Amino acid sequence: xxxxxxxxxxxxxxxxxxxxxxxxxxxxxxxxxxxxxxxxxxxxxxxxxxxxxxxxxxxxxxxxxxxxxxxxxxxxxxxxxxxxxxxxxxxxxxxxxxxxxxxxxxxxxxxxxxxxxxxxxxxxxxxxxxxxxxxxxxxxxxxxxxxxxxxxxxxxxxxxxxxxxxxxxxxxxxxxxxxxxxxxxxxxxxxxxxxxxxxxxxxxxxxxxxxxxxxxxxxxxxxxxxxxxxxxxxxxxxxxxxxxxxxxxxxxxxxxxxxxxxxxxxxxxxxxxxxxxxxxxxxxxxxxxxxxxxxxxxxxxxx
Length: 303
Prior knowledge:
mainly alpha, two-stranded antiparallel ribbon, about 55% helix, about 5% strand, Myb/SANT-like domain-containing protein, Myb/SANT-like_dom
C-alpha cells in the first residue's frame, strides 16, 4: 500500500505510532502528500457527488463513511478523516488563490501545463504586494479542474466556479448592457449628431473674443456628440459578440439528455442552465462524467 499521499508539508494528527499511542491523541506532525494522493482523493469525492452524497451543507454521513473507508483501504492509516479534512482545507485555500489570480487582468491559465500564466512584470508586481502568491508562479496544479467540480460555487466569494479553460471577463471587456437599451441610445446619439452637424449657423455681430468662444463651444459639442456615438457603437458590437457566444438551447438539452437523469433532475437542470454563463460553464466540461458531477454539485447547492 502507498504510504505517502501528498507533495507538500501539511499539519495533521500523528496516528498509529510505534510507541503505542492511541488513535486520536493529538500530536503535531508533518505528513507528506503527493499529487497522486490528491488525485485519488478527488476521484473519491467526485464519485460520492455522483451518488448524491453531498448537499448544500456538505458531505452526508454515508458519504464521509465511504470516503474514509476508501482512503484507509488504500493508505492503511487510522483516523484518516482528520487528515482528509486538513488536506481539503489546504486545497480549498489553493483553489481560492488560483481563482483570485485568474480573476485579475494580466493572468491566464495554460491547460496544457495546468499553470497560472502571466508576464514576469505582472507576477513581480503582484507578488510584491502579495508574497504568498509566489507559490503559484511556475507551479502546476494538475488536479485543479477536479477540485473545481467538488467545490462548485461555494468557494470564497460565492460566485460561480471558474473552470480551467475559462478566463473571467475584464469589466471593460464584457459590459452588462441591454442590447435594446444600447440600440435606443445609439439612435438618440445619431439624432444628436445630425442636430449638431445640420444646425444653421446664426450670424451676429460680436467681438473677436466672443466669436472665438462660440466657435470653441460649437466644436466641443460636435466632438462630444461624436464621442457618444463611438461609445454606443462599441457597446453594440460587444453586446452582439456576447449574444453570439451564448450556447444554444438545443446544445444544452442534448447535453442534459446524455446524462440519463430522472425527469425531476432534468427539469431542475434546465432551470439552472437558463443562465447563459452557467450553461457555458456546464458545456465547458469535455466528458459526460465531469458534466454529470458538476451538475449534481450545482443542483445539490440550489435546494
